[in-house]
Amino acid sequence: MKRLVSRLLVVALPFLMSSPVWAQAPEMPSNLQIVGTIRATGDAPPPKAGDTVKVVEDKENGAVSATGSVLDDQGTFYVEMNKQAPYNGTPLRLQIVTGGQDFPLKEGKAEVRISFKGGFPFPKREDRTLYYGDGSEPVAAPAAAKAAPATAAGTQVCPASLPKCDVNGDGTFTQADLDLVKAELKLKTPSAKADINGDGQVNSADLVQGIKELKLKK
Protein backbone atom coordinates (compact mmCIF):
# COMPACT_ATOMS: atom_id res chain seq x y z
CA MET A 1 0.00 0.00 0.00
CA LYS A 2 2.78 2.43 0.93
CA ARG A 3 4.56 1.65 -2.33
CA LEU A 4 1.37 2.41 -4.29
CA VAL A 5 0.90 5.76 -2.51
CA SER A 6 4.51 6.70 -3.20
CA ARG A 7 4.10 5.95 -6.90
CA LEU A 8 0.91 7.99 -7.07
CA LEU A 9 2.67 10.97 -5.45
CA VAL A 10 5.57 10.76 -7.90
CA VAL A 11 3.13 10.83 -10.82
CA ALA A 12 0.72 13.44 -9.42
CA LEU A 13 3.11 15.96 -7.82
CA PRO A 14 4.31 17.62 -11.08
CA PHE A 15 0.69 18.13 -12.16
CA LEU A 16 -0.27 19.59 -8.78
CA MET A 17 2.64 22.06 -8.79
CA SER A 18 1.75 23.27 -12.28
CA SER A 19 -1.95 23.66 -11.53
CA PRO A 20 -3.54 27.15 -11.24
CA VAL A 21 -4.56 26.42 -7.65
CA TRP A 22 -0.94 25.80 -6.64
CA ALA A 23 0.28 28.82 -8.60
CA GLN A 24 -2.22 31.08 -6.87
CA ALA A 25 -1.18 30.12 -3.35
CA PRO A 26 -0.75 33.28 -1.24
CA GLU A 27 2.80 34.53 -0.85
CA MET A 28 4.31 35.79 2.39
CA PRO A 29 3.98 39.57 2.86
CA SER A 30 7.18 41.60 3.09
CA ASN A 31 6.92 45.11 4.51
CA LEU A 32 9.52 47.87 4.74
CA GLN A 33 9.47 51.37 6.22
CA ILE A 34 11.95 53.97 4.99
CA VAL A 35 12.18 56.91 7.37
CA GLY A 36 14.56 59.70 8.27
CA THR A 37 15.42 63.24 7.29
CA ILE A 38 15.92 64.96 3.93
CA ARG A 39 18.05 68.10 3.48
CA ALA A 40 18.53 70.39 0.49
CA THR A 41 21.97 71.45 -0.77
CA GLY A 42 23.13 74.32 -2.95
CA ASP A 43 20.32 76.27 -4.59
CA ALA A 44 17.75 73.48 -4.37
CA PRO A 45 14.44 74.48 -2.75
CA PRO A 46 14.13 73.21 0.83
CA PRO A 47 11.77 70.31 1.56
CA LYS A 48 8.27 71.18 2.74
CA ALA A 49 5.57 69.26 4.56
CA GLY A 50 3.51 67.42 1.95
CA ASP A 51 6.31 66.95 -0.60
CA THR A 52 6.27 63.52 -2.24
CA VAL A 53 9.03 60.96 -1.73
CA LYS A 54 9.17 58.33 -4.48
CA VAL A 55 10.79 54.89 -4.40
CA VAL A 56 11.73 53.84 -7.93
CA GLU A 57 13.04 50.51 -9.15
CA ASP A 58 16.71 50.98 -10.03
CA LYS A 59 16.68 50.16 -13.73
CA GLU A 60 16.10 51.98 -17.01
CA ASN A 61 12.58 53.43 -16.98
CA GLY A 62 12.10 51.87 -13.56
CA ALA A 63 8.55 51.89 -12.23
CA VAL A 64 7.55 53.82 -9.12
CA SER A 65 7.34 51.12 -6.47
CA ALA A 66 5.94 53.23 -3.61
CA THR A 67 5.38 56.81 -2.53
CA GLY A 68 5.55 58.51 0.82
CA SER A 69 5.70 62.07 2.04
CA VAL A 70 7.65 64.70 3.89
CA LEU A 71 5.89 65.17 7.22
CA ASP A 72 7.21 68.57 8.30
CA ASP A 73 9.32 71.52 7.15
CA GLN A 74 12.36 70.03 8.91
CA GLY A 75 12.44 67.30 6.24
CA THR A 76 11.21 64.33 8.29
CA PHE A 77 9.92 61.75 5.82
CA TYR A 78 8.10 58.42 5.88
CA VAL A 79 7.55 55.79 3.18
CA GLU A 80 5.81 52.47 3.73
CA MET A 81 6.24 49.62 1.24
CA ASN A 82 3.96 46.58 1.36
CA LYS A 83 5.21 43.88 -1.00
CA GLN A 84 5.54 40.10 -1.07
CA ALA A 85 8.57 37.96 -0.31
CA PRO A 86 9.72 37.53 -3.96
CA TYR A 87 10.24 41.31 -4.10
CA ASN A 88 13.08 41.02 -1.58
CA GLY A 89 16.39 41.94 -3.19
CA THR A 90 14.88 44.38 -5.70
CA PRO A 91 17.27 47.35 -6.15
CA LEU A 92 15.67 50.74 -5.50
CA ARG A 93 16.51 54.43 -5.57
CA LEU A 94 14.73 57.39 -3.98
CA GLN A 95 13.56 60.76 -5.25
CA ILE A 96 11.85 63.81 -3.79
CA VAL A 97 9.36 66.00 -5.63
CA THR A 98 9.55 69.55 -4.30
CA GLY A 99 9.09 72.97 -5.85
CA GLY A 100 7.73 71.31 -8.99
CA GLN A 101 10.99 69.41 -9.57
CA ASP A 102 12.19 65.82 -9.14
CA PHE A 103 15.51 65.41 -7.34
CA PRO A 104 17.43 62.16 -6.84
CA LEU A 105 18.18 61.62 -3.17
CA LYS A 106 21.78 61.09 -2.11
CA GLU A 107 23.86 59.85 0.78
CA GLY A 108 26.94 62.04 0.72
CA LYS A 109 27.61 62.79 -2.96
CA ALA A 110 26.35 59.49 -4.36
CA GLU A 111 22.74 58.75 -5.25
CA VAL A 112 21.29 56.47 -2.61
CA ARG A 113 20.48 52.92 -3.63
CA ILE A 114 18.95 50.30 -1.40
CA SER A 115 17.95 46.69 -1.81
CA PHE A 116 14.41 45.93 -0.69
CA LYS A 117 14.39 43.73 2.38
CA GLY A 118 11.05 43.59 4.13
CA GLY A 119 9.80 41.77 7.18
CA PHE A 120 6.68 40.05 8.46
CA PRO A 121 4.68 40.29 10.70
CA PHE A 122 6.69 43.35 11.77
CA PRO A 123 8.10 45.59 9.03
CA LYS A 124 11.83 46.12 8.65
CA ARG A 125 12.95 49.73 8.95
CA GLU A 126 15.57 51.74 7.05
CA ASP A 127 16.57 54.96 8.82
CA ARG A 128 18.35 57.40 6.48
CA THR A 129 19.65 60.96 6.36
CA LEU A 130 19.44 62.01 2.71
CA TYR A 131 20.35 65.05 0.61
CA TYR A 132 19.47 66.51 -2.78
CA GLY A 133 20.65 69.37 -4.97
CA ASP A 134 24.04 70.24 -6.45
CA GLY A 135 25.75 71.70 -3.41
CA SER A 136 28.40 69.84 -1.46
CA GLU A 137 27.03 70.91 1.90
CA PRO A 138 23.43 70.58 3.04
CA VAL A 139 21.44 73.71 3.66
CA ALA A 140 20.59 74.03 7.33
CA ALA A 141 17.09 72.87 8.11
CA PRO A 142 14.70 75.61 9.17
CA ALA A 143 14.46 75.91 12.91
CA ALA A 144 11.47 74.21 14.44
CA ALA A 145 8.74 76.63 15.35
CA LYS A 146 8.39 77.35 19.03
CA ALA A 147 5.33 76.07 20.76
CA ALA A 148 2.46 78.49 20.46
CA PRO A 149 1.96 80.54 23.61
CA ALA A 150 -1.18 80.20 25.65
CA THR A 151 -4.12 82.21 24.40
CA ALA A 152 -6.23 84.45 26.59
CA ALA A 153 -8.43 81.44 27.26
CA GLY A 154 -5.38 79.42 28.32
CA THR A 155 -5.44 77.02 25.34
CA GLN A 156 -2.10 75.34 24.60
CA VAL A 157 -0.87 73.60 21.45
CA CYS A 158 -1.73 70.22 22.98
CA PRO A 159 -5.12 69.49 24.54
CA ALA A 160 -5.17 68.31 28.14
CA SER A 161 -5.76 64.69 27.10
CA LEU A 162 -2.67 64.69 24.85
CA PRO A 163 0.12 66.47 26.73
CA LYS A 164 2.76 65.20 24.26
CA CYS A 165 0.84 65.67 21.01
CA ASP A 166 3.53 67.69 19.18
CA VAL A 167 5.54 64.66 18.04
CA ASN A 168 7.52 66.43 15.31
CA GLY A 169 8.26 69.49 17.44
CA ASP A 170 6.94 72.09 14.99
CA GLY A 171 4.79 73.87 17.56
CA THR A 172 1.47 72.60 16.17
CA PHE A 173 -0.73 69.52 16.45
CA THR A 174 -1.62 68.26 12.97
CA GLN A 175 -2.10 65.11 10.90
CA ALA A 176 1.69 64.95 10.49
CA ASP A 177 2.00 64.16 14.21
CA LEU A 178 -0.56 61.36 13.93
CA ASP A 179 1.27 59.94 10.89
CA LEU A 180 4.40 59.65 13.01
CA VAL A 181 2.42 57.90 15.75
CA LYS A 182 1.01 55.44 13.17
CA ALA A 183 4.51 54.68 11.92
CA GLU A 184 5.77 53.96 15.44
CA LEU A 185 2.80 51.72 16.30
CA LYS A 186 3.72 49.40 13.42
CA LEU A 187 7.12 48.72 14.95
CA LYS A 188 7.83 45.92 17.39
CA THR A 189 9.43 48.42 19.78
CA PRO A 190 7.88 51.86 19.17
CA SER A 191 9.58 55.03 20.36
CA ALA A 192 8.35 56.73 23.52
CA LYS A 193 7.70 59.88 21.47
CA ALA A 194 4.49 58.20 20.24
CA ASP A 195 3.11 58.23 23.80
CA ILE A 196 1.12 61.37 23.09
CA ASN A 197 -1.44 60.80 25.85
CA GLY A 198 1.35 60.62 28.43
CA ASP A 199 0.22 57.40 30.12
CA GLY A 200 3.64 55.77 29.87
CA GLN A 201 2.56 53.32 27.15
CA VAL A 202 2.60 53.42 23.36
CA ASN A 203 -0.54 51.77 22.02
CA SER A 204 -3.65 52.33 19.92
CA ALA A 205 -5.13 54.55 22.64
CA ASP A 206 -2.65 57.26 21.64
CA LEU A 207 -3.82 57.17 18.03
CA VAL A 208 -7.54 56.93 18.83
CA GLN A 209 -7.40 59.89 21.21
CA GLY A 210 -5.27 61.83 18.74
CA ILE A 211 -7.78 61.34 15.92
CA LYS A 212 -10.61 62.39 18.22
CA GLU A 213 -8.85 65.56 19.37
CA LEU A 214 -7.79 66.51 15.85
CA LYS A 215 -11.41 66.27 14.68
CA LEU A 216 -12.50 68.50 17.57
CA LYS A 217 -9.79 70.97 16.65
CA LYS A 218 -11.19 71.28 13.13
Descriptive report:
GO terms for molecular function: hydrolase activity, hydrolyzing O-glycosyl compounds. InterPro entries: Dockerin_1_rpt, Dockerin_dom_sf, EF_Hand_1_Ca_BS. Keywords: Signal. The chain is an alpha+beta fold. The protein has two domains: about 30-130, Sandwich (Immunoglobulin-like), CATH 2.60.40; about 145-218, Orthogonal Bundle (Type 1 dockerin domain). Helix content is about 20%, strand content about 30%. The protein contains four helices and ten strands, in the order ααββββββββββαα. It has helices spanning about 1-20, 20-25, 175-185, 205-215, and strands spanning about 30-40, 50-55, 65-70, 75-85, 90-100, 100-105, 105, 110, 115, 125-130. The strands form two sheets. Strands 1, 2, 3, 4, 5, 6, 9 and 10 form an eight-stranded mixed β-sheet that branches. A two-stranded antiparallel sheet has the order 7-8. A hairpin with a 6-residue loop joins strand 2 and strand 3. The protein is flat, with a radius of gyration of 23 Å. It starts with a helix and ends with a helix. The model is unreliable at about 135-155 (pLDDT under 50).
In total, the number of strands is 10
Structural domains: how many? 2
Question: What does the average pLDDT come to?
Answer: 80
Which descriptor suits the 3D outline? flat
Corresponding CATH architecture of the largest domain: Sandwich
The CATH superfamily of the largest domain bears the name: Immunoglobulins
Count the helices. How many? 4
Succession of helices and strands: HHEEEEEEEEEEHH
Question: What structural category characterises the helix and strand content?
Answer: alpha+beta
Tell me the major beta sheet. Answer: 8 strands, mixed
From the N-terminal CA to the C-terminal CA, the straight-line distance is 73 Å
Tell me the radius of gyration.
23 Å
CATH topology of the largest domain: Immunoglobulin-like
How helix-rich are the residues, as a percent range? 10-25%
Strand content: 25-35%
The CATH C-level name of the largest domain is Mainly Beta
Keywords: Signal
Pfam families: Dockerin_1
GO biological process, one term: polysaccharide catabolic process
GO molecular function: hydrolase activity, hydrolyzing O-glycosyl compounds
